[in-house]
Structures are given as structure tokens and as C-alpha cells.
Amino acid sequence: MNTPRGARRTDTKLSDGRELIYYDPADAPARAPLEDTRGLPAPQPQVELRTDPLTGDVITYATHRNTRTYLPPADQCPLCASKPGNPTEIPDHDYNVAVFENRFPSFAGPGRTEVVCFTSDHNRSFTDLSQGQARLVVDTWADRTAELGARDDVELVFPFENRGREIGVTLNHPHGQIYAYPFIPPRMQNLLRQARKHQEVAGSNLFADVLAAERKEGTRVVAENGNWTAFVPEAARWPVEVHLYPHRQVGGIDELSVGERDDFAELYLDVLQRLDGLYGEPLPYIAAWHQAPVRIDRELGYLHLELLSIRRAKDKIKYLAGSESGMGAFISDTRPEDVAETLRKAGQ
């Protein structure tokens, strides 16, 4: 079937009952998915949620994740398309984008965790995708946002990508994840708290006002196009941090128009290439979508993507030390305006 924005979607099941979904271009031939022949046992995740009485933060314990696959050799990668001698999580011999329920989920019962494979090519990264391929990933995120956000046990849908060993990835294949949280996580609670205060005082949306101020001031803007702006935030915490905002306030990726999705894919690839140009090699990063909550305070939210890297120099990593880990008070070695200028030059 086709998703609301045109991608072709094919649903199937893995041998242990987990869902697997293929996303192909709308004009691609209909897919007849192959059977998963691995005969996997049914998953038995062990997940417990506890609330810290001192902060109110929800902490998730998922002890079964200690046994998950860790940096296997390329010929044993579980995210590659299957081939003789290496049946994987994706039974077909090739795919464009594939999404499946995580075999080692962080949430079970309430909530859900999914893996999003951006391409079947093990040796590529998101940065290497064509604009059309990146655009298909955007449609995939949008479809998953709409479906997961419709569940009664989900409060926030969080697509993200971790890239690089320094970040802590356990699989090198180009992929991201989606956490459909059964609660509002701490960072989003803090953002909403600030947005509510701003709304009460200024009568306007905090995120929209931040975007307008950054575009007007200009020194921290990295790149922009008709529908999106990428900038280094004025109070960036991380050595390299870039936020991508649409010019129109929307709550989720699924609300983006065709033109907004096109422009995001174009700008995002541009920014990723600038990041890789900083030190002449792939930059480790986290790409974190900030979508509005499904039900609570949705009108205060503003869809945007936050990109951050812990690399503060070509051969140096920013580790969270006493002030950051113990008190949550960040001390940065890089000035946002300088980072923005460097990234602007990286695209020349």
C-alpha cells in the first residue's frame, strides 16, 4: 500500500512475530517479501520503569539488552539484506528502507522501539544518500510517526540516529531508531516548561521566536533554503551542535508538506556534508528529532532536528566530566559563532 505522501509500504512478519515494514519509492514494483527462515524464539524482553523521587525522571531498566549484538564483522551484519549463509533481520536480498521492531527493545508492553535501516548498502552513511533516498527516509519517519502516535500507550515519538563508535553504536550499518515513549522524557518536559513560561509572558511560541531571532541575527546560521534553516544555537552545549527548523510551526514529521520534506532532505544532506568536512573524516554524531508530544501540551511543541557531536577537535572528544555529569551544568570549549562560521566555510 502507499503511505499518505506516496511511498510504497509493504508489511510482513519475522519468524518470531515481530513486524517488518519495507518502504520503497511510490513507482517501484510491488514487493513480495521473502520468508524469514531463521525460526527465532518469541522475544522475552525484561523491562521495568521506575520514577526517581528526587527528580521525577522515569528511568528504564532493560536488562535483556546486555546480550544484544555488538559490532559484528561486516559479513555478519544483522541489518544487511539476507544472503546465502547470512540470514538477517531483513529476509529480502535487497531493500530501500526497512523498519522492524527491535529484537532487544528498550520498551515492551507500553511503548515500542523500532530500527530504521536507511539503505541496504553496509558501507554507506546517511551523508552518502542521494536526495531521493533521503527523501524516502523522511516519508518513512512520517509514516511511523503517524502510526506510533496513534497508539494509546505512546506519549512521544522520537526518531534518532547514532553514528560513530565514539557515540557508542553497536552496529555499523547505516541505521537509526525510533523510540515511542510511554511517557514524556525529561528533556522534552524541560522544553515544554520553558515554552509554557514564554507563551504566558510573550503570548507566542518559544521555538518560533528562537528561529526568528536566529534568522534575523544571522551570525549562527549555517545554511537555509525556502522552508528550513540550520543554525548553531546561541547556548549550544556540545562542541558541534546544529539545529534544523522548518519555517512553519508543525508538531510532527507527518505534518510536513511535500515541499517541506523535499527541502529538509536537501538541507540535511548539506549540513551532514559540512559536518564531515570539519576534520576531513566522518564526524560522530547524534541526530535527534524533537516532535511535539502526542497529547499533552502539543500546541507548545515545534518540530525540529538537533544534531550534536562530542568531537571538540580532530583528535579530541568532549567527555561529560564532573560539572556536566554531576550537576548538568555544561562548560563548552567551543563558541557557537565560531562553529557556525567554520561550518559555513565547509560548504564553500
Automatic annotation (TrEMBL):
Keywords: Carbohydrate metabolism, Galactose metabolism, Metal-binding, Nucleotidyltransferase, Transferase, Zinc. One of its GO terms (molecular function) is nucleotidyltransferase activity. Residues 196-305 form the Galactose-1-phosphate uridyl transferase C-terminal domain. InterPro entries: GalP_UDPtransf1, GalP_UDPtransf1_His-AS, GalP_Utransf_C, GalP_Utransf_N, HIT-like_sf. Residues 111-185 form the Galactose-1-phosphate uridyl transferase N-terminal domain. Residues 8-21 have a biased composition (Basic and acidic residues). Residues 1-45 are annotated as: Disordered. It holds the Pfam family GalP_UDP_tr_C. Pathway: Carbohydrate metabolism; galactose metabolism. Gene3D superfamilies: HIT-like. NCBIfam families: galT_1. This is Galactose-1-phosphate uridylyltransferase. It comes from Kribbella speibonae. The gene is galT.
